[in-house]
Write a structure and sequence with these properties.
There is one protein chain. The protein is built from 13 helices and three strands; from the N terminus they run H-H-H-H-H-H-H-E-E-E-H-H-H-H-H-H. It has helices at residues 2-14, 20-39, 50-62, 67-86, 113-120, 128-143, 147-152, 181-198, 218-231, 240-253, 258-265, 270-273, 275-291, and strands spanning 158-159, 164-168, 174-178. Helix 1 (2-14) runs antiparallel to helix 2 (20-39) and helix 6 (128-143) runs antiparallel to helix 8 (181-198). It is globular, with a radius of gyration of 22 Å.
Length: 295
């Protein structure tokens, strides 16, 4: 089955155009499933049954895995067997009728504007790394792009004169996102001073570099964000996506229409964007309960 998993990965890359991170996630889920199957003395796709898959999911639940993790595993296994049906290796998908666990939807963590200001004030502009970090944080909050999109940016993707950047989201879909004047200013300072000193090779295309002069990774940015979150006395729950959630919520709180926010975030379905209206309503309710004399 490992050989077919390799072909499946190739299919996801070439046919579906999924990102490397998404494909790696599929592969991890499948590899863990294959280990379970090996313990059950099952090695051929046609030997896999619905009961076996349910047994694997039960083992994940007993191991304390979150409902979201189990649900993702169901999606990975179902997609893999759909591929095998397409390839005429098996007739039916044994995971087709397997039910995913119900996931309780929680409102995402959002920073207040004061908390965002405190976080963005942390990087020092004295050194090249500080200039880079300030530019990245300002750009992330100004545009609402994903961290994977941030570290994938090339020099040619940023247009300071027009106040826009071009990024490639899920499925390599390209979109143009507006960038505010404050972020443009700090990215400009990083380009004129910080990046030039960090650069080791003249042909490096990446906008944001690490100390080796190469493209900064997602993991590298996570460490940077965690450091500044601690310095600003913010919760350990602050992630790159927290700034994305805060960007969208603050736009809607200040009157932005949902369709425009959807375009900026790169959501294919507006129902995904509607979560931010719920956050806004929740906040309004809290304010009302705290301030109205008869609440």
């Amino acid at each position: 089955m490992l050989a077919w998993a390799e072909k499946f990965s190739h299919y996801l890359t070439v046919e579906k155009g999924l990102s490397r991170n998404t494909i790696d996630s599929y592969r991890r889920d499948l590899n863990n499933f294959f280990v379970f199957l090996a313990g059950e003395k099952v090695s051929l796709p046609k030997e896999v049954s619905r009961d076996l898959i349910n047994g694997y999911l039960l083992s994940l639940k007993q191991a304390g895995r979150a409902a979201s993790t189990i649900s993702r595993n169901v999606a990975s296994i179902r997609s893999f067997f759909n591929f095998l049906v397409q390839e005429n290796l098996i007739e039916d998908n044994p995971a087709q009728l397997v039910r995913s666990p119900r996931i309780e939807k929680r409102l995402p963590r959002v920073l207040t504007t004061k908390e965002v200001d405190r976080l963005l004030q942390q990087p020092s502009s004295d050194g090249q790394a500080g200039l880079r970090d300030k530019a990245m944080l300002e750009l992330l909050y100004a545009s609402g792009i994903r961290v994977s999109e941030l570290v994938s940016l090339n020099l040619t993707d940023f247009s300071p004169e027009a106040g826009f950047l071009r990024c490639r989201g899920k499925g390599m879909k390209e979109r143009i996102v507006p960038v505010g004047s404050v972020a443009v200013k700090y990215v400009g300072e990083y380009l004129s001073s910080g990046r030039r000193k960090m650069l080791k090779r003249g042909d490096e295309k990446a906008l944001f570099l690490n100390h080796h002069g190469r493209r900064l990774t997602r993991q590298g940015f996570w460490k940077i964000l965690k450091k500044y979150a601690r310095q600003s006395k913010l919760s350990d729950e602050v992630t790159p996506h927290t700034l994305r959630h805060s960007f969208a919520t603050h736009l809607i709180e200040n009157g932005a229409d949902l369709r425009s926010v959807q375009e900026m975030l790169g959501h294919s379905d507006i129902s995904t964007t509607q979560i931010y209206t719920q956050i806004t309503r929740h906040k309004i309710r809290e304010v009302y309960d705290k301030t109205h004399p008869r609440a």
